[in-house]
Amino acid sequence: SKKSMHCDLKEPNVMISGNTDWQNPNVVVIDFGLARDFKASTGVMGTPGYMPPEVWQSGLWTPKGDVFCLGVMFYNLYCLQLRKVFLGTTLEELKANTCQMNIDYQPLSNCPPFQRMVQSMLESNFRSRPTVLQVTKRSWWSEAGKDGSTSISIEAVENLGKAKRKSQLQTALVMDVISQQNLAHLRELNDLFASMDTDNSGTITELEARQALTGKMPSDEVDRLIQSLLGDSGSVSYSRFMAEMIAAKKS
């Protein structure tokens, strides 16, 4: 609807329908569970790390809030998910970093038009952000790929598909292990993971995870959980771990 706000735009809620035309893909938005009419009451809802400052501060969702979420997505995707706009190991840290707008734009500096567009979408004052229509008219959309250097690699698309299937398998394994633990144990694991981030980097290594989990769970489950969470990366973010636990609690 033209009069609705999604209120939870993020990468998992935006999909591409079909795999035949990667130059002009059909993009589909899903999961309208938090969507609201412009006149409806809102509140503090959405996904931490994507929610704009005004939602954290006063529970105010406007269409410009969806623009902010898109800006977060654009940043994350440009950085290949290796960097996030807002870092934090707790809700309090994510809220503080969002409200203080602690954003490092250096990763976008090699593409000034894109950086300017994303910066405008992530303005702290929602009144200063562009509308979605204004975003679509920014120069980056017409300038991107003009030199022909950004043609889409079929191999890259296939690799993305493999990565998605691997991610789905990892999530299934994580959920299987976590679902067998009671809520008290989940909270204990959460506190345990948070206490291991001694350098406040937002990630823990396999060695740290293994040392901390040994004795807390059967050894085979420790192996499964670590392999599922870390995969080949060698580290895991707290945000992913906490998200899995929250999902397990809700299921």
Structural notes for this entry:
The chain has 251 residues and is mainly alpha-helical. 49% of the residues lie in helices and 7% in strands. It has eleven helices and six strands. It has helices spanning 53-58, 63-78, 91-99, 112-121, 132-136, 139-143, 154-178, 183-196, 206-213, 219-230, 238-250, and strands spanning 4-5, 14-17, 26-29, 36-37, 203-205, 235-237. The strands form three sheets. A two-stranded antiparallel ribbon has the order 1-4. Strand 2 and strand 3 form a beta hairpin. Helix 2 runs antiparallel to helix 4, helix 7 (154-178) crosses helix 11 (238-250) and helix 8 packs antiparallel against helix 11 (238-250). The chain is globular and about 55 Å long.
Which helices and strands, and how do they pair?
Blueprint: E1 4-5, E2 14-17, E3 26-29, E4 36-37, H1 53-58, H2 63-78, H3 91-99, H4 112-121, H5 132-136, H6 139-143, H7 154-178, H8 183-196, E5 203-205, H9 206-213, H10 219-230, E6 235-237, H11 238-250
Antiparallel strand pairs: 1-4, 2-3, 5-6
Helix pairs in contact: 2-4, 7-10, 7-11, 8-9, 8-11, 9-10
